[in-house]
Amino acid sequence: MIEKEQIGVIALGGNLSFDQNPPRITLRNATNELIARGVRVLAESRYFTTPCFPAGAGPDYINAAISFSSELSPAALLQLLHEVEAAYGRAREQRWGMRTLDLDLICYGDRILPDRESYDAWRQLDPARQTKLAPDQLILPHPRLQDRGFVLVPMADVAPEWHHPVLGLTVQEMLAALPARDLAEIRPL
């Protein structure tokens, strides 16, 4: 479905090589693939290294973010992201497990999807249940972006003034609210 052009942010990450390429190259190639498939990239963040969670569970992650514009509906864009992930060896076997490529639609304009009640339920989900449950529909903005330095640090490079439509905070304000210990190990490459 084609809609009015919207601006959003996609978070990119990975910690496993694909086709003999390290994660940084996979992220670059995936960005190029999105461009080739009609996503207009407005800005690209620096690349950051982030420790694997839980500690010692695997290689460090490489994280980045892009701001983009598109006329695709959120559902069509999510489908495109899943297709690109699959093309780069992403297997959805374990929630929050190691992966060759992770493309997360973080925000798409000021949309709250699927509705405010569902969004609030996922945002307030108990941390223990977050590891076991995955939504069966797109939730926007990403319900835990305000808690994740590995998302906010790169996002601050590409959309520092984006305003969270529920929390009423900019990316810079959410980033400033995180404990310093959560940011200490996120380093630019």
From TrEMBL:
Signal peptide: none
Pfam families tied to this protein: HPPK
CDD domains hit by this protein: HPPK (cd00483)
EC identifiers of the protein: 2.7.6.3
Family annotation (InterPro entries): Hppk (IPR000550), Hppk_sf (IPR035907)
Ranges in a coiled coil: none
GO molecular function, one term: 2-amino-4-hydroxy-6-hydroxymethyldihydropteridine diphosphokinase activity
Ranges where the 7,8-dihydro-6-hydroxymethylpterin-pyrophosphokinase domain occurs: 9-160
Keyword Ribonucleoprotein included in the entry's annotation: no
Pathway connected to this protein: Cofactor biosynthesis; tetrahydrofolate biosynthesis; 2-amino-4-hydroxy-6-hydroxymethyl-7,8-dihydropteridine diphosphate from 7,8-dihydroneopterin triphosphate: step 4/4
Keywords, sorted A to Z: ATP-binding, Folate biosynthesis, Kinase, Nucleotide-binding, Transferase
Homology family: Belongs to the HPPK family.
Record function comment: Catalyzes the transfer of pyrophosphate from adenosine triphosphate (ATP) to 6-hydroxymethyl-7,8-dihydropterin, an enzymatic step in folate biosynthesis pathway.
NCBIfam families: folK (TIGR01498)
Name of this chain's protein: 2-amino-4-hydroxy-6-hydroxymethyldihydropteridine pyrophosphokinase
Organism (species): Ruegeria alba
